[in-house]
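task queued by scheduler; priority normal; single chain, no ligands, no partner chains; default sampling; output format set to structure tokens
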Amino acid sequence: MEIHSDNSVSSSDDLVAAVDLGSNSFRMLVAQAINTPSGTQLRPIDTLRDSVRLAAGLTENKLLGNDAYQRGLATIRRFGERIRGFDPSKVRAVATNTLRVAKNAQKFIDDAQQALGFPIEVIAGVEEARLIYIGAAHEVQAVQGNRLVVDIGGGSTEFIIGKGYEPKLMESLYIGCVSHSIRFFPKGNIDAHAFKEAELAARREIQVISGAYLKNGWNQVIGSSGTARALAELIAANDFNSHSDSLTMGRINTVGGLITRDGLRAMKKHLLTYEHISHVELSGLKDDRRSVWPGGLAIMLAVFDELGIEEMEVTDAALRTGVLYDLLGRSQHHDMRYVTVEQFMQRYAVDRDQAVRVGKLASEFLQQLPKSETEKRVDNIALLQWAASLHEIGLSISHNGYHKHSAYITGNADMPGFSKNDQARLASLLIGHTGKLGKLANNASFHDWRMLFCLRLAQALCRGRSDEDLPKVKVLEKDGAFQVNISKEWIQTHPLTEFSLLKEAAEWTRIGRSYELNQK
């Protein structure tokens, strides 16, 4: 395990931590958040990295093998010791491609969360791309116009075009240095035909997105994270670049390295003089990179060829740095999730007045209910309001069964800022906000019953889509039993609402949950 530490900071009050469970390496960054007149800056305090090779441990049936499983948990336990005692609001842990595809990923996540002591989010590929861009943009030199960031990971490669700190175009392709090396260079064997096939396979994937990217254009190309940094170091250490003028050297010193097309081709030529990866002699080739280096090189050559790149500057800042800046943004009310919900409301022509009406009432009901010691009430209120904002997006497809369309969109769309778990919770609330509850009752992983109760009640009371004449309602909950107290005088003048609430009580009773409607 690589450990880099700065012990000059004694207080943990202003420390934040990001954990990145990648397909090749697990990394953790502990940094000090420093507020300046121009914004918040991060000062790295500790960095930990372990080459877990999680993707290499995937079986043909997409299961994490026991060796990779245990290597991952051992590393996470060490990470957990370092951040023990941190406030949960100061830590964010994310998992990427291998834990998106492994069939036993949830079991690993459950064990890993216990070992780390903090929640772990499995993020979608586009969300990974967004966070990578944020991290890279904060660490590289500013440029006028667009910037292209490419991050070759163990199981996927992210492509992002952005301007300033804002990503504009984001894609994640299922090509990575680990998976590509296993596929085309099994057991470390190397030959020209296999390398050509590896390049062509990567080029075919990139061709799908190249048109849109070339149309947008860029003035700066950045390679982020481990593969790009390793290639840049090998090019420099072995003098593979064919030109090294003062301008190039200046960029190497200030950014972290430079990859050129000539350098990549020279490296490929050198590699193909060997028949096995274990025999390759290169200055600076680290043991933990040796087995995945050919796949990374083939993908990078495909990136350069398909996108017409001649030079790429390199930064080590990537996902974990972006995670920290995004975490700080949430605490400073710059939460990307609010922006995403707003964009969805606009895209699907949501009735904003109704969304606000339902969200406000549902939140008021949740505030009346008891709060457990472990519940994050502020987070749950935000999630409940997002559900209210999105509960009618399915109407853009069809009125019949619109809640199913709303849930499908929310569960499967790219939603920047949201983790896979966030989206799953939202989708469950939307599928259950009206209609029958049987499917959710049979879902052992669904736990947001209080929030669903509040959302369903608010939706029933707001059926008239008007702020006028809404009754005063008091709700209670004890041991999973709900009680709704409403004015008898009001309910007698609203027979449709009374019918809806009695039907609602019967639906909850049908799944074995007590629901009492009191008219006083």
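post-processing summary
- Confidence is low (pLDDT under 50) at residues 243-255.
- The longest strand covers residues 39-50.
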